[in-house]
Write a structure and sequence with these properties.
Blueprint (H helix, E strand, L loop, with lengths): L9 H12 L4 E6 L5 H15 L5 E6 L2 H16 L12 E4 L2 E7 L14 E6 L7 H10 L6 E6 L7 H8 L5 E6 L9 H11 L3 H6 L13 H5 L5 E2 L9 E7 L7 E8 L6 E9 L5 H14 L5 E6 L4 H13 L6 E3 L5 H13 L3 E4 L3 H9 L2 E2 L2 E2 L7 H11 L3 H6 L9
Parallel strand pairs: 1-6, 1-7, 2-4, 2-5, 5-6, 8-14, 9-12, 11-14, 12-13
Antiparallel strand pairs: 3-4, 9-10, 10-11, 15-16
Helix pairs in contact: 1-2, 9-10, 12-13
């Protein structure tokens, strides 16, 4: 079949040559709005679909089926005609360049189940930073053909976003990453580019949507952490002597995650350190919850854990954790979390961060993401599912009983050497 010729910018031509001639398992375009990264995909997708291993399936994934239609299928239909780009049927199937393909949403953890059992030869991902992480985790296990390939695009988010962590940790031999700025799209009218730059000037969105950088959100609550997270990260081997520790528990449900946080204290409360975390975005049975919690406590047995504080809204689950600890002969008391005012908890952590008294171990990535992405909006902390409030709640529950005592301690400033 003769493919329609698209007019590509120099950046798009260079990127297309790289990902088509030398494809890797993961081929990701990250960058500014209107930078041309999605238009490039209209050129790449047909070639991938045609070349994909017939023994595997082809899947297109976006936040919802509607966004896949709006962002990918509808524009491609205008380019290639409805003969090559069909309409999505009620079954979620679509005829694409002579091949039956599946279209899926990725808006919550339940969407991951639609991938279970699939063998995926080619997957395309739209707006990946908007997905529920569980869908991406499931997809990774489904790309099981020898020549399986994933192409994806996204606008950048905050520096601790789970997808940014994935990009940073994937070995270079398995991934192509291309960053687009708005200036890479030379097809845009210069006046439009200038106007967009002016509109975003002076805001964090200039970095994200003009320069294509991963930056903290506007209205960021924990600005010291969001701007320089590396200042607060400890290697496990550098953790100082811990004289006491507490655990905070936030229970999942109705779209929220289950999170545990273990916080330790050095002598005189000089340092407050998040030592370990647990995070699960999927639904858990009470039995699963109890197993995970006991495992979490056991793996941290080297620390002197004093108390456990749980979200008081779930009394039956709290009783279950208590009974599980009794069965395992773990003598740590379980309490209701104090659930003090959110503003008091925020001020507590900001005070510790600004004085250099708060740290976390490097593997506590969900907690890091939670602090980096927390946003203050409309006189409250944003809690609409777009940020990780669950890890924040667990972290805060672990320390709120000691907040006044910790803040009352005056740590002398050390002279710089």
């Amino acid at each position: 079949m003769r493919m329609t010729a698209l007019t590509l910018t120099e950046k798009q031509k260079k990127t297309a040559g790289k990902v088509l001639r030398s494809p890797k398992r993961w081929n990701i375009s990250v960058g500014a709005v209107r930078s041309g990264k999605t238009y490039l995909d209209y050129y790449v997708i047909p070639r991938r679909v045609i070349a994909a291993d017939r023994a595997g399936q082809v899947v297109l994934i976006g936040l919802t089926l509607e966004t896949v239609e709006r962002n990918i299928l509808s524009p491609m239909r205008k380019i290639y005609s409805e003969h090559f780009v069909g309409r999505v049927r009620k079954s979620g199937r679509v005829r694409l360049f002579g091949r039956e393909c599946t279209v899926l949403g990725a808006y919550n953890a339940a969407c991951a189940e639609k991938l279970r059992g699939m063998s995926v030869a080619y997957a395309y991902g739209d707006e990946v930073t908007c997905w529920n992480e569980e869908v991406f985790i499931m997809l990774k296990s489904r790309l099981d053909r020898e020549t399986s390939v994933f192409d994806g695009s996204c606008n950048p988010s905050h520096p601790f976003h789970w997808f940014k962590v994935f990009l940073d940790e994937t070995p270079p031999e398995h991934i192509n990453i291309t960053t687009f700025t708005i200036d890479d799209n030379t097809a845009l009218p210069p006046a439009f580019v200038a106007a967009l730059k002016q509109e975003y000037s002076g805001t964090v969105y200039y970095d994200r949507y003009i320069l294509g950088k991963w930056t903290a959100a506007e209205g960021s609550i924990y600005t010291p952490f969001a701007e320089a997270p590396e200042r607060f990260i400890l290697r496990d081997e550098d953790v100082p002597r811990i004289i006491a520790a507490d655990v905070g528990v936030d229970f999942g449900g109705s779209g929220s995650a289950t999170a545990f946080s273990l916080t330790g204290y050095t002598a005189g409360y000089e340092k407050v350190i998040t030592l370990d975390e647990f995070y699960c975005g999927a639904a858990m049975s009470p039995a699963q919850l109890e197993r995970e919690f006991v495992g979490f406590i056991r793996r941290n047995g080297r620390y002197p854990i004093s108390d456990i504080y749980c979200d008081s809204a779930e009394q039956m689950l709290i009783r279950g954790l208590e009974n599980a600890l009794i069965r395992e002969r773990i003598a740590i008391p379980v309490h209701n979390a104090k659930k003090s005012a959110i503003t008091d908890r925020i001020h507590f952590y900001l005070a510790l961060m600004s004085s250099g008294r708060y740290m976390m171990t490097a593997h506590c990535r969900h907690t890091a993401e939670a602090f980096a992405s927390a946003v203050w909006k409309d006189e409250r902390r944003l809690d609409n599912g777009s940020t990780n409030i669950d890890s924040l709640d667990a972290q805060e529950y672990s320390t709120e009983r000691r907040m006044k005592e910790i803040l009352s301690v005056r740590i002398p400033m050390r002279k710089e050497e």
